[in-house]
Each structure stands twice: as C-alpha cells, then as structure tokens.
UniProtKB/TrEMBL annotation:
GO terms for biological process: regulation of carbohydrate metabolic process. Residues 7-74 form the HPr kinase/phosphorylase C-terminal domain. The lineage of its organism: Bacteria, Pseudomonadati, Pseudomonadota, Alphaproteobacteria, Acetobacterales. Pfam families: Hpr_kinase_C. This is HPr kinase/phosphorylase C-terminal domain-containing protein. InterPro entries: Hpr_kin/Pase_C (IPR011104), P-loop_NTPase (IPR027417). GO terms for molecular function: ATP binding; phosphorelay sensor kinase activity. It comes from the Bacteria.
Length: 152
C-alpha cells in the first residue's frame, strides 16, 4: 500500500473531500477555517496522507488545526474522506488561470481536477462549492472552447 504524503489541508462536505494545496503561508489553514464555518468537516490541517484514494491526517495531527494568532486548536474531525477536488492556492498578486489549460486542469500527484484560487478572496469558499456542484453533476461546466470571451 503506497502512501502519498502532502503538505496540504483537507475538508469534506458530505462524501466529497477537498484538498487545499499551496506553498507555506498560501492560506491553507485560513481557507480551511472558512470552510469549517460553512459546515465542512475537518479531515486534516497542514499534512495529509493519501492512502487507497482516502485522505486522512497523520495520527499525531488528527483533530488539530492552526488558528494563526491564536494557536493550535483541537476539534472534532472526520477520520478520512475521498478527495474529489484539489484547490491550488496562489499567492496574493499571483495570476490565477482564468480558463486553465488541460495541463493545469489536473493535479499531477493526485490526478484530481484542480480549482486555481486566491484563497483570501471572499468568494473562495463559494468557488469551491460551485466546483463541487459541477463535479457532482448538479451544475454544468461548459467546454472551455464554448466560453464567451475565451482565447479560442
């Protein structure tokens, strides 16, 4: 059994897990906190282990989340979740692909579809919710070729 260890956070809504990826300081824990206040479950903060398609926190970090400026907080958590989306956080001022190319659309390590996002934006949790709706088939993602104003 292969374990993929990631510097990431993970939340879950229903059966759908969301991996939050990004460089240190990109806002993974901050966005995770915002998702938790919207009813998502905590799976892992700062470190994620992917095993047989399931994400979980390493044993020593289960139920722990960093609240910057406050400290490490212990709270209820979900043992594991099956990720369906990878959110790639970009630094403030860094360009977010408007319409990602095919190579930007999937994470190479996990094979998951990628949502590129500035996690500090007020709309960040809404963008994650919409991506999950599309992946669940409750909203329709148009072909990039069909996008109005796209670079076709």
């Amino acid at each position: 059994m292969t374990i993929l260890r990631l510097h990431a956070s993970c939340a879950a809504r229903g059966e759908a897990g969301v991996l939050l990826l990004g460089a240190p300081g990109a806002g993974k824990s901050s966005l995770l906190l915002r998702l938790l206040t919207r009813g998502y479950d905590l799976v892992a903060d700062d470190r994620v282990e992917l095993r047989d398609g399931l994400a979980s926190a390493p044993l020593a970090l289960r139920g722990l989340i960093e609240v910057r400026g406050w400290g490490i907080v212990q709270r209820s958590f979900r043992q594991s979740a099956r990720p369906v989306l990878a959110v790639q956080l970009v630094a403030e001022g860094e360009k977010v692909p408007r319409l990602p190319t095919d190579t930007e659309s999937y994470n190479r390590k996990t094979g998951l579809p990628v949502l590129w996002l500035n996690g500090t934006l007020a709309s960040a949790p809404d963008s994650i919710d919409m991506a999950l709706e599309c992946l669940a088939g409750r909203a329709c993602l148009l072909s990039r070729d069909a996008m109005p104003g796209g670079d076709n």
